[in-house]
Structure formats: C-alpha cells, structure tokens
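Checked the freezer inventory, then went back to the computational side. Two predictions to log before the end of the day. The first one is the construct we discussed on Monday; recording sequence and tokens without edits.
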Amino acid sequence: MFAVVTIILALLINFSALDTGKLLGGFLASLSRMIISYSIALTVAVIIALLITSNKWLEGLFLPVFDVLQSFPSFALFPVLVVALKNSPELVIIFVLTITIIWPILFTIIGGVKNQREDLEEAATIFGAKGSKRLWHFTLPQLLPSIVTGSIVGWGEGWEFIIGAELLVRVNYGVGAYLGFLGTRQENIALAFGIMVLLLLLYVINKILWIPLLYTVTKFSSEG
C-alpha cells in the first residue's frame, strides 16, 4: 500500500511542476509545529482534566468557562498576537494552534474520567494504588481511549487551522505558506496537485499512527 502511495506522490510531484524541496520541506516544518503544539495541548489537557474532575467546585466553576472558550474562533487572536509577538511568528502559530487542538482532547478526557468503571476504581484502591502509582498504572491507561479519540479530532482540526495560520503570519517555511505562494502566482494546477500531495501525506500519518493506535486502545478498552 505504501509503495503505491509513494509512486502516486512521485507522479504528482513530477508531473505538476511542484518544487519538491519547498513542498516536502514545508510539510516537515508544518509537521514540526503540529507535533510541538499537540504535545503542549495534550499535557495541559490531561493536567486540567484531572484537576477539575477531582473537585466538584472546580468542575462547576471551570467547565462552563471552557465550554464557552472552545467556541471562540482561534483566528480572532491573531491580530493581538501578531502585534504582541511581532518578532516571533513561530510562537504566534504554536500558541494559537495549541489552543485549537486542546479542546477536543480536554473534553474527551473529562468524559473518560466520568465514565471510568467503578469496579476498577475500587479494585485499584483495594490494591493500594495511590498517588503517582495510581496515575501511571491505573488512571492514564484507563483514559487512553479518550485521549486517542480526542487527539485524532484535535490533530485533524490542527491541520485545518495551520494552513490558514501560515498564510496569515507569513512564515518562511510551511506547507500552508507554499500553497499560498502557488495560489498568489495563480499556479492553479500546481496548487491542486500540492493539495493532493498534502492529503496523501496526512493519509499516511493516519494509517501509520492514528488508526493502529485507535485500534489498540479500543481493543484494550474492550478487554478491560
């Protein structure tokens, strides 16, 4: 399958006048931004979810606030951040991209905490699982299906966002910046092929990473 994808990618690049270095280099730059932002979003989401679900008062206070914030359009932050961080375009993209990715992860983890099985909770308590031991050996493994599900949604929303973000902030490298360059020069055929290459690359990532991971944690959850 991957051999077929590789052949298709090579054909698309060779027959569309795409600049291989700019396209693939831009994709790697965008992928790096995505990985950094996702890592921050995941870490913060896990911490916040565990904190607010551990206390009814905190949950009642912050959950409605987060519910409103997730509906706030991330692109609206750009005018302020571009001025405040005008010398750091990378920070602007990573900051707003993190905010975009975090919400699906946060809310699915909160849902996962609330749906944890009481019998397993009691068993963990009986066997003396406390503190960090309980967190690493019980809580996080139980939340893996929720984390992966939220991550898939957040990852997809992040790729939708980053293309526009790289156009607005005007970074030198990025797949969005390169596609925007093609659009500005009205190289419509190359632009169409570039989008197809991007879709294929994202498909490969999903096939290699997210689909096997989802299958694994779903199987783990069913067996549990």
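The second is the one RB wanted added to the comparison set:
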Amino acid sequence: MADDPVFLITGASSGIGAATARHAADVGYRLVLAARSTDRLAALAEELGGEERAIAVTCDVSDFGQQEATVQAALEAFGRLDVAFANAGFGAARGFLEETPEHWRDMVLTNVLGCAFTIRATLPALKDARGHLLLMSSVAGRRALQGSLYGATKHAVTAMAESVRQELNDTGVRVTSIEPGMVDTPFFDNAPSNALEPDDIARAVMYAVGQPPRVDVNEILIRPVSQPT
C-alpha cells in the first residue's frame, strides 16, 4: 500500500542486513536497500516485491554524497522514511601489527564515519516521521578485546547511539543500538557451531522497531548461548 512505512538498511546485500529486510517486508514495510554490492542487492529487491515494495541503491557509506542520494531515492520512491538501520560495516584481524594500514582506514571510515553519515543523512526524514534509528554495534562495543581496532570502532558506535538519543529527546525519534556476539555471516571465515544466525539478529531488530511509540529500546545485547566473552 502507498502509505506503508519505509525501512532503509545499509549493508543490505547479505547477512544481517538481508535477513532484516526479509523480516521487515514480512510485516509490511517497504524497503530501501543500500550496499556497495549491487548485483545481490537488485536480486533481493526483486525478491521482496520489486520497485513498488523495495528499491536497491548503490551506496558506499563512507561517501556522504551517496548517503544523501540514498535518502533522496527513498523519498522520491516512497515519500517517507520511518526506520533507518545503519548496518554496514566490516572487521579486521586482531593485533596491531596485523592487516594493512589501508584496511584499517577503510574499516574506520565505514564503521565509524559511515555510521555518523547515515545518522546525518536520515535524521531530517526520521524527525518528520517520528521514526526509529538503529545502529549496528557489537559485543565488541561493550568491552575491550585484545588487539582489536574493530572493537574500538564499535565502542564509537555505542557512544554515538547514546549521543544521538540524547540529541533526539522530545523529537519522537527512537534510537536503538544492536550489539550482537558471534553471528554466522561472511564476517567470520569459520564461525563456531553455536554462532547466532542472521535471522536471530533480525528478530531482535524487529522487536525494537515493533514496540509502541512510547517505548524506546535503547540497547539489545545478544550473544549465543555459552559465548564466553
């Protein structure tokens, strides 16, 4: 329907982003799917109903112009934006002598600045809709992990979530930080047998989004059973 709410997801081409898109579509959201990988993104948009229900937008979240264009595409296609999920991100091997400086730079720009850019690009439309902003943090954003620059990026996201929540007081916009433990996605080369599935995280996202407007679920920390840290 033309007045169905609209859900924007960055990093939507696979893993948690794609799973969340499917769950959101199941409960009636129209979707704006953003990622750098356009082939899988277009296939997912077609699966979820085609251009009347889901659009695919090529977006590198570290480029603010592309983030603005993604929001503009959402408004042009659907006329509104109700939920934005800053989900794009990637990791790095632990150890401050591991990976390349270029990998580090790309990770920090994607995980930290990319998240901030999503906030900045979506806030005007979310304020108009009294909508919901979700940021993908991690268990690694709650405690220090040995040798983990990735964890530092997720600490930044956790802090951003609380900072923007305070800024948005009295606007009606809700803010949720999603903080998964080990999830069986391309993030891990060899995920342990007890790892969470992307659908587990998608259900947590939809739990927060599905609360009454007076309820703001600020943080969801979700681990596999028996994850030690």
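For RB: The helical segments are 15-26, 38-47, 64-78, 101-129, 149-167, 198-209. The chain has six helices and seven strands. Let me know if you want it refolded.
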